[in-house]
Amino acid sequence: MELVKIGVISCSGEDCFGGTVSRLATRKILERIRLGEAVTICLPLFIAGGEEERGFAQAHPTITVDGCGKWCAKRATEKLSGKVSDVVQVADIIGQKTAEGPALSTRNVTKEHMEMVDQVVEDIRIKFDRIADGYYKK
Ligand code: SF4
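^ Zinc-binding protein, sequence as received from the core. Prediction below:
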């Protein structure tokens, strides 16, 4: 059975804490939790018109991860590529006020911040596995 590669696309989130969490959680899924099963794209390149990126959501079931209610990753993906399979909203998990706080340099990330990242990782993982299960049952 061929392994389905599932796309996980984080917003670029340089401006608020929710974006920091979005990027760290997506990175952890890609590099540790679902290594080899998850793929991603660079959102700014995608928006700038990278040809390969444009077909991404058609080629892979895709989960977007957004740091706040502006939904940049979901909106860009659906506008430029195709409908996403599921979404993760960081503000719904860590609270809107926390998500809207200032962005954080990775060297200033604390244990408490990483616990929030792990809550988001778990939400991504659950949605990721639900999509994967649906494919393998087909
Ligand atoms: S969704 Fe929010 S945190 Fe993410 S890039 Fe857009 S404005 Fe920034």
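The pocket of iron/sulfur cluster is lined by residues 11-13, 15-16, 18-19, 66-68, 70-72 (CB under 6 Å).
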